[in-house]
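User: quick one
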Amino acid sequence: MNYSDFFKMIPEASLVAILIVLFVADFATAKTEERKWFNPLASVLLLLNTFVCLLPMEAQTAFGGMYVTSASVDVMKAILSMGTFIVVLQSRAWVEKSGKEGEFYMLIVSTLLGMFAMMSAGNFLMFFLGLEMASVPLACAVAFDTYRKNSAEAAAKFIITATFSSGVMLYGISFLYGAFGTLYFEDIATKMQATPLTIMGLVFFFSGLGFKISLVPFHFWTADTYQGAPTTITGYLSVISKGAAAFTLLSILFHVFGGMMQYWHVLMMIVVVLSITIANFFAVRQGELKRFMAFSSISQAGYIMLAAIGNDWATSVASLSYYVLIYVVANMAVFTIIAVVEQNNGGKTNIDDYNGFYQTNPRLSFLMTLAMFSLGGIPPFAGMFSKFFVFMSGLNGADISTTMGAWSYAVVFIALLNTVISLYYYLKIVKAMYIKHADHPLPTFQSDCNSKFALAVCTAGIMVFGVFSLVYEWIAAAV
Amino acid sequence: MFDYAFLILLLPFLSAIVLGLFGMKMPRKVAGLIGTCMLGTLFVLSLYTAYHYFFYTGEYSAMGQTFRVVDGRLSSGVYPTVTVFNLTWLKFTELLTFNIGLRLSPISVMMLIVITTVSFMVHIYSFGYMAERDENYKFEEYEHGFQRFYAYLSLFTMSMLGLVVATNVFQMYLFWELVGVCSYLLIGFYYPKHTAVHASKKAFIVTRFADLFFLIGILFFSFYVGTFNYDLNVNPGLSDKLASIAANPEIAWAIPTALFLMFIGGAGKSAMFPLHIWLPDAMEGPTPVSALIHAATMVVAGVFQVASLFPIYIKFGAIEQLHWIAYIAAFTAFYAAAVACAQRDIKRGLAFSTISQIAYMLVALGVCYAINDEEGGLGYMASMFHLFTHAMFKALLFLCSGAIIVIIGSNFKEYMGGLHKYMPITNACFLIGCIAISGVWPFAGFFSKDEIVSACFQFSPMLGWFMTLVSGMTAFYMFRLYYVIFWGNSYYEQDPENRRRPQEVPFVMWGPLVFLAIISIFAGWIPFGHFVSATGQSAEIHLQHFHFSSVAWFSLLAAAIGISLATWMYMPKHNPVPDMLAKKMPVLHKAALNRFYIDDVWQFFTHKVVFRCFSMPIAWFDRRVIDGTFNFLAWGTQEAGESIRPWQSGDVRQYAVWFITGTVALTLVLLCLI
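Assistant: Done. Structure below.
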């Protein structure tokens, strides 16, 4: 074994280092006293990690092809690392109340480590290890509020369905091993051709990742888990975990199943249309904000995977990464606001609780509105551009005179129609805050300074990433 | 050298923003002073620009181009077209880009001077006009909304300047719409007054309707030519492209059509028959606004537009369209002069006079058929010259009428009469304006108007005589107005006990009057042809060298007849002739008083034809079919959401069933593809 290969895994090495620092910090200090420094420490370390991911690195392989790195993976790692930074930043008030800082930050960082490993995998085994490494700590995090029954229920549902989906996925991977006699991505890609066996392998494998991204029909756990989990974790699940899985799926589809592109195009089209449409129908009827955001996130997942309908890796991955970046800032803004409202008002998360919110908390209402506009894709906010780019990449190479091309256009058109429906329910929140009257709106409160900072970062992202198309061009150039 | 020129657009923009956002927090006087000081700076800046542009000797560069000039002229003898900056704002295709820039050409520099001079005078004058006064005309407080007024004025000035320095026709259109908006805001300045609201709506809708054709024209132009640029001097490829289109019989119609469509937009702004109906009503706005926007600057936008596109009209087969413009304008000139003879409201009288005079400018452009300063192209210079002089004396006349309205408190001539004793300065200034507009030597109007009439004679003697007749009518109605205001029966003297004694306006108002009056006297002696001409070469105005042609004598004669007639009819205190004439020809008089019922025709057309036949069916379609579809969709979404709710049961076993069913179903679908 060549130990110098470890030096090629710089983002992972950096995360391991953070884990060790946090571990030592947690054990070296007494848990009795208040540890106010813990959150800043974790935040700064994650911010540093973001910059480490941005360091220019060559595309290379390590450990005999088990580990592969490339520019696109690094960009995505940086985006996820930044998202985790925001999550950690806004988690402070809640975590300090629980008194289990060390545990929480280590759980979060180890899930991130698992996702990094999954994204950089060059072999199905490595991929599976990474996936599980992300799943198990995540389930712990979902159950973090041990005093709440809902939290435990959410974790139970999550871990049961996760185990189930892992089983199905392993079944699919074993088909692939049976067909090709290898689990290395590179080797499979060269031999790839469509046979009934490989198609079964593809679909079964896909359902495992579809579960992580929460695409219809693998999405059922989402609503229950999102609602029950602590709000911070819901935010983390909805952006980071989803983003990592979406990226991995896209990467494997292109790099492993490249030889049967038209099959997975059909697969993705069906799943994307179902996800966007069905999730929208559910979202329209929701009265609980976190559950509502769960359906919103399923629908957004559909939009993210629109990138996989295109046939050009570079545009697809650029538009997907950009979409995830925008989605991270917009969605984290919403979840941060939900979290501060929840903490300051004794756990209120119903949409009706927000009636008349504008009268008492005009600034938070305004930020919420910005985030909702961005999620709905109203120009000039970032969400509009990210939607535009995934539509563009979805139509890449689609020739309307062929059947497949026409279907691509149809799928993008359906997605467009669905943005109208999604606008309807995003604006419902805005309407509740600004227009609906309430006799006793939520009282005016002051959010903690960490949340304020997180919100500032998100808002800046929503405004800046949208208005300056530079960001997309930078991503497109980097990948 | 013109690096500072961006300030010409930036300064008024900033002051509009500052006054618009923070004006209400300032004392009224401070807001007014900010606006006025900014405009004073702008005025100086424009003069400086003009001085540099027309008289500089040496070398300078702009946008990477180097100009070597002697007395402002290139070695070819023409003034250069200087593009100071040209930013790409939107890029449609490689060639078709929407730029915002600043371009100096002889006519745009002339317009800079016209706009800033009049605007500056109006800014000062408004301190006196926009004030509330007590019984004895003593100043009490600036009017409510004083800050808003100055904010609008700044915005208007910025828009108008942006229009005249436009580097391309799309930028012109953008600022064109902006001036329309400012006009709307200022006409409706006294928004609690119903008539003002109606007038502002009317002005906006009529001009906006005409602007639609402008936009269509631009689209035609850009579709066939592939660019928004119109200046042949700075866009070398443009001439070739236009020539190739003009030479192709299949699409040769495109350029003339595009140009004429654009002109319809210009006809709306410049109040040509039958789109003139908004201008008399626009007099509901404060009088300084009428002077600035509805007499001197915005209403000549149409003339400026045709003049800017003039080389394209002449060179690429649109001379026919140019002549149509001449005929429309000649009719308008006559029509408006006839209506002006019967108006009771002094501002409306002046408004019709404005329509008539702008028509003169368009006639002058329309009669051209070559690019040549002596023969066939004289009208271009004449038109621009008249634009310049008219802006000065018409602004003067409007500001005088504003002074009278401040003192009398009414627009109607019945309340005036005999004012020459009480308002000597206003009287003198108004008289100078009347003489200037009537075309009496050596005042400004004489030179510019006679150039126009000469140009008409070159084109067709019939039209020449016709325009001479109209100039006689001009002299008649202007002096009629003058006499009924300043001579004749004095309203005050009929009952001095109960009526307010008129008196002269304060210095802040008569100062600008005197300034403009001096310009109106001497502007005719500016060697205008030296600066602006069809070819760009220095051209002479013969009248300035006392070479009076027979044309000049005839029009002087027409003016003399008009003035004498007016003096005989209206100067004495009691003359039965006007009333007798009105009684003898009741139909004609009533028709003229009611502007020949053109407004009623439009009213009928819009209400009965457009609303009934088009709007109502469309409204029905919108309400029933379109709204219905969306309501159905919304209902469907709600229902679908409700019906699939049971799927999400919270039962994990069921989730697993769905999971595996979904996986198997997808596998089956893909297997079918093999």
